Structures are given as C-alpha cells and as structure tokens.
Amino acid sequence: MFTTPLVRALRRRYPDAHLTYAVEPAAAVVVAGNPHLDEILEIPRRRGLPRLRDDLAAARGLRRRRFDLAIDLHGGPRGAWLTWASGAPRRIGYRTPGRSWIYTDVVPRPADLGPRHSVLKQWDLLAPLGIDACDPSRDAVEMPDDRDATARIARRLVATGVTPRHPVVVLHVSAGNPFRRWPRGHFAGLVTELARRDPERRFILTSGPSDEGAVRAIVEDIRRRSAAAAAATWPWELDITELRALIAQAAVYIGGDSGPLHVAATTRAPIVALFGPTLADRSMPWRDPRWPAEGVDGGPLPCRPCRQRTCAPGDFRCLTGIDPARVADAVERALARRAPEADLDVRPRSAMHA
C-alpha cells in the first residue's frame, strides 16, 4: 500500500511508459485495477525447490520484457535478485550490506523505527529520477473501488439490520502480533461508550483469521455491558476489496497499526488509529488532509518505539495505556470533521432498502 503513491508519481513523470508491477499473489489485490499501471506480474511465494523454479521463471519473464528501469521497492534478497535478473540497464535500490552492487543507483535506507513516514522512505527511491517531494494531498495511498464488492457489502448491511439512519462504526480488532493488539476489554468499553453517546450507531467488528474467536468474545462482552450497543461480528473471510468497501460505507473506522488501517486510508471515511509500539509519525494514514484521521497512543514511554520482539516492561503498557474514553473522544472529533455526505464514499441509499 505504501508504494502506491510512487506508482502515481512514476506515471506522472513518464506518461508514455509501460509500467509493470511485480508482486506476490497475496498482495496483488492492492494494485489490481490501479489506473496508473499497464501490467501486474504475479510471482508465486512458495518454499523449497518450487520457489527456485518460480524465481527462475520470473527472471526469464522479466528479462524478456527488456525493461529500461527497475526499482526494488522491497529491499530483501528476493527483490534484489529479481531486480538484477531483470537485466534493466538502470536499477534503483536501498543501500544494503552485500546487495548494493546489484543497483546502478543506491539510496540510503532509513532506520525502520524512526519518526519518518514509511511512504516517504519508499519515496526516497525516486530521488535518482528527480521526482518532486511527496505531498499526501496529491500522492495519497490508493486502492481502486470494486463495484461488485461495494454491492455485496451493501446487501450484507441490509441483512445485518443497518438502515440509512444508522451510523456504522467499523472496528478492526486484530493485528499480526500481540504488540499491536489493543485489549479486548478496551474495545468492549469503547463500543459501550460510543453507543451511550449515540444509540443509533451500529458497530461491526472485523478481524484476521487468527483473531476470529477474539471478535466473538468482544461482542459477547459488549452485550453483557449494554443491551443498547448493537454490535455484530463480520468474519475474517472478507477479502481486501470487501473490507475496503465496508470501510468506505462506514461513518468511521477504528483500528490499530496493521494492514487494514492503510486499506482504510484509501477511502474517505474518518479514521481513528491506535498506536502502541509504533509511532504515528511513521504509520499514520497517508491521505488527503481533507479526510480526517486521528491518532491515539500510549504516550511518550521510554520503550517506544520498539522492535516488537519482547515487551521490556512485560505489561504492554503502550497499548493498555490507551484509555477507551480518549479513543471515544477522538472518534467524536473525527466525525465532527467528516466531509459532507456528497463528498464521501457512502453506501447507495436505494441499495439499503433492497
């Protein structure tokens, strides 16, 4: 997702170029339909001997295309090797021990944990091409709408009992590791408080496969706390296009620093982002400032940011210290800044009555 601003900038710099994006299948949906790309080349991710065969086949395919320029947006061993194997006479990549020789243009690699946004770290790779500085109002992260996914989500909202008078609050309650998971009880407390402030709100909780049970537990906790808080769990089987469509049709999105947060950034829905071990300066939604986004964190702890290997204090205080009442206040601020409905990706009103 963080590379999509670069794609737009390359198209602007080279309007007549043939732009190919090489990507592993799991992430291909992010750039599928990107209007600035001419071709998406999916490279399988397997292990062992099949991986070697895949890489050799990908290298042959890249070389046949006779690229003039290859940019390694990843910087890992596989990306570096494929960049070299493309045979492009000009190759741009990060300065990395043991791999810098692969590139004709080497760019310093910023520290992973520093207070500089990940989009800007990617944007550094465009410096050898003389491309201007990155401005989120012009170069936001991008993922195209999927009309079929939008229609499916609209139908499902109807089936869930959501009507046009109900503001939909989407909460993504999982993350790839425990260092980014806000406590379950905090999510339940937040929903209860938001429902108290506006009983018309409807809450939809989503998760990844590893946290499906956590979602059910949070919903049960919410129902024990408040009969007025209408919360439903939407299973992890939602694909990325459907998740984006759901967020685009919501009044607000709430979630931690994980992939879905940056999917949400490609919509115009207000966002409240929860930051534990990571910094807002590094991972806030990279979007047009007209679309509101609030960041909430655990404060200036001496152990923040961390590498998310071991919690030094042992109590995940960077997450547990984020009080649900503070998050609820941030939600209200984000909603108050919400753009007029005509400017938002709202669900079709006719579809809500289907």
How many β strands by DSSP? 11
Rg over CA atoms: 21 Å
Q: What is the count of structural domains?
A: 2
Global geometry: globular
Structure characterization notes:
This protein is α/β, with parallel strands linked by helices and 354 residues long. The chain has two domains: 4-129, Glycogen Phosphorylase B (Rossmann fold, 3-Layer(aba) Sandwich), CATH 3.40.50.2000; 147-352, Glycogen Phosphorylase B (Rossmann fold, 3-Layer(aba) Sandwich), CATH 3.40.50.2000. 37% of the residues lie in helices and 14% in strands. The chain contains 14 helices and eleven strands. The strands form three sheets. A six-stranded parallel sheet has the order 8-7-6-9-10-11. Helix 7 (184-197) packs across helix 8 and helix 7 (184-197) crosses helix 13. It is globular. It starts with a helix and ends with a helix. The relative contact order is 0.12. The model is unreliable at 345-354 (pLDDT under 50).
Task: Give the helix/strand layout.
Elements: H1 4-13, E1 20-23, H2 25-31, E2 39-42, H3 49-64, E3 69-71, H4 77-85, E4 90-94, E5 105-107, H5 118-123, H6 147-160, E6 168-172, H7 184-197, E7 202-206, H8 212-225, E8 230-233, H9 240-248, E9 252-256, H10 259-264, E10 271-275, H11 280-283, E11 293-297, H12 317-320, H13 324-336, H14 349-352
Parallel strand pairs: 1-2, 3-4, 4-5, 6-7, 6-9, 7-8, 9-10, 10-11
Helix pairs in contact: 6-9, 7-8, 7-13
Structural descriptors:
globular; disordered C terminus; alpha/beta; three-stranded parallel β-sheet; 14 helices; 2 domains; 11 strands; Rossmann fold
